[in-house]
Amino acid sequence: MFRRFVAWGLMIALGLVIALGSNAACMAQEEFLEDVIKQANAADDTGKVGELDNKPERLEWLRDNGFGMFLHWGVDAQLGSVISHTLVGASDDYVQRYVTELPKTFYPKKWDAEEYVLLAKSCGMKYIALTTKHHSGFCLWDTKTTDFNVMNTPYGKDIVREFVDACHQHGLAVGLYYSPEDFLYAYKHGELIKRRPHRPSPDSDPEYVKFVQAQVTELMANYGDINVFFIDGRGKKTTKEVVWTLQPDCLITRGAIESPEQTVPGQPPEEVWETCMTLGTQWQYKPQQLDTLKDGDRVVEILIETRAKGGALLLNLGPRPDGFINELQEDIMREVALWNFVNREAVIDVRPWIVTNEENIWFTRNKDEDTVYVFLTRQKNWDRKDRREFVIGSVSATEDTTMTVLGHNGQVVEYTGWEPEKAAPLFEQKEDGLHLSLVPGQRLLNSGAWRNPVVVKLTNVKPSCKPPLVVNGKAKGKDGQIAFQGELKDLGDADEVLVGFEYQEYLGFAENMYNDEWTATELVKMGKPGAFTDTVKVPGNKTYQWRAVVKHPRLKMTGDHSKVSVK
């Protein structure tokens, strides 16, 4: 009751009803686009507002439950275009058609919020976020602030209401995306549509600030509990004040915590973080997506890497114009659902291990126990009867260590007659590391072959060593060469380590997660902290992603991901 009273008072005070009136060149453009997006999303007010802030227990909730679904959907889904951004640089007649014609044909008769909520739950996701209003200004809820909303379409129903109700019904945390930047608002106020800078300012223009406050008040006061809020673009301070005033327990991700886009950081951030990423290369529905969608195995690998680095993955789908789930996207998510149904304990309630990975073997640890999960990736066509051997350097067994393969009881492999002696996983601690021997065991597909990562659970284990630390320095590209600089900060518990660099071609802002193969330079020995360098020849007129590397006797560590262009 108190919350409703506060919300009603704020709505009246704000005046809710507001009248509205070359390859190198391509790569440079991609880098420019990425920089602009980062600047637009990393406003100066990231963090708390006055005494208002994310509650510690809500941040811990995200650490525990770091897998969610993102839904980008707007009135221009009918065109299969990039969401909203076609308005930037558009002619007046295009803007007029966009605003007047698209709402007349927006009729998502197959939209069923429960379908998306239940798909997310099947995938082991803990929250789901919907774009209530993207930069175009089109609102998916029954707003009194603008006529440019879903109620003035043939559909004529409050999509945000349907979405929130479905989340509440099925116990999934509710997430709302909101853009304070509003292209239609800018256009009607005589401004050129653009994002850098967006005019008028949602941070400082009094009338615009009231407009943002009114919209956010509607979202936070009219739909019950909202668990997660994602703020895209300028106007974060104003938005956060309303969100945290009306719903103090709401977790704000972008706008209050580190939130990279379309990438996973090379080095794990120290604080709570969330990355948002598309299933393909576009946020909204894209008809031409056959060649751009990540397959299920790659999505699982990205989830593993994100959780191994302590982050949350907010994975985006784009509903079709009619509201239905795109079949290609759903098929991929069903593959993710199967993997996570088997292995979910390895990605929920976990924290980073002392290292994120040893080459293609990744790690998480249970937040409350001496339990480590070992993700064996890149094991293609691993038949359930095929025993394979692995050695890991960062984990040491104890007298009480046990080993299991998630999803499998270790006693029966169907149609083999092995049970139980040949089916059991085995481990042995040796001087060079912990040796693992196992079969996948469980029959998950008719063929018996399994392409997704197998996960091993090790209980009562301990770290085997102190890891080293390396950081990137600078890199300079010129005349078909890259000159790298790195710095060894700490050798860990080793007397001597090997250092060098790894690099790969940078494919573009949305495409960078498709390339996970690295070329390594020759490693050199170092016996104390300090700087090191190397130079490599590469094809010119390209941009490269690179990182410094240090190899300890038991494991390898890397620096963050940096970029350099070569002429």
UniProtKB/TrEMBL annotation:
Domain Glycoside hydrolase family 29 N-terminal: 56-343
Keyword line: Glycosidase, Hydrolase, Signal
InterPro entries xref list: FUC_metazoa-typ (IPR016286), GH (IPR017853), Glyco_hydro_29 (IPR000933), Glyco_hydro_29_N (IPR057739)
Keyword flag Signal: yes
Keyword hit for Hydrolase: yes
Pfam families in the record: Alpha_L_fucos (PF01120)
UniProt-listed Enzyme Commission number(s): 3.2.1.51
First and last residue of the signal peptide: 1-24
Matching PANTHER family: ALPHA-L-FUCOSIDASE (PTHR10030), ALPHA-L-FUCOSIDASE-RELATED (PTHR10030:SF37)
Family per similarity comment: Belongs to the glycosyl hydrolase 29 family.
Function as written in the Swiss-Prot or TrEMBL entry: Alpha-L-fucosidase is responsible for hydrolyzing the alpha-1,6-linked fucose joined to the reducing-end N-acetylglucosamine of the carbohydrate moieties of glycoproteins.
Designated name of the protein: alpha-L-fucosidase
